[in-house]
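Practice problem 4.
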């Protein structure tokens, strides 16, 4: 909080008058980032895709573009949630939204008869969600540690999603 206050040109006390905790600051930052980076615009191509397979491709694009940009904030909230009730509430709210998007995508695949054999829409949604929750460590491992480019990572994640979920 001290570093944030200094960077903002306010006192630490002044920062705490506006944000009661680091979690409140992170929540406000996350919402601001979603607005500035255009979360709605990033999701729109998924919703308007002409078919379920195109929607899944857009889903991966959204993950590899948008979620790569918000990793630092997402990771901070994830770390704080085990000891901070506010962070846990923010995380839970985000997970409900993420899972809802996954369920919508899985249901669309099922409705269009493109969901791979062996999957139910709810189980596919859970698997899609787990990949979404695991995005940050996958990105860190493959892009930051192993030196993959963002394009290589997107191609890998696209193959993984297509081979796993598409009939």
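Answer key:
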């Amino acid at each position: 909080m001290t570093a944030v206050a200094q960077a903002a040109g306010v006192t630490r006390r002044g920062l705490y008058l506006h944000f009661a905790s680091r979690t409140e600051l992170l929540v406000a930052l996350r919402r601001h980032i979603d607005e500035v980076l255009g979360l709605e615009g990033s999701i729109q191509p998924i919703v308007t895709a002409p078919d379920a397979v195109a929607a899944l491709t857009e889903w991966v694009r959204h993950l590899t573009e948008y979620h790569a940009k918000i990793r630092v904030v997402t990771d901070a909230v994830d770390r704080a949630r085990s000891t901070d009730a506010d962070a846990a509430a923010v995380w839970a709210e985000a997970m409900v939204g993420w899972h809802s998007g996954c369920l919508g995508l899985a249901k669309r695949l099922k409705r269009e008869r493109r969901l791979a054999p062996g999957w139910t829409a709810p189980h596919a949604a859970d698997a899609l969600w787990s990949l979404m929750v695991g995005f940050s460590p996958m990105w860190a491992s493959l892009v930051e540690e192993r030196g993959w480019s963002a394009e290589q990572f997107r191609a890998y994640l696209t193959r993984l999603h297509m081979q796993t979920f598409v009939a």
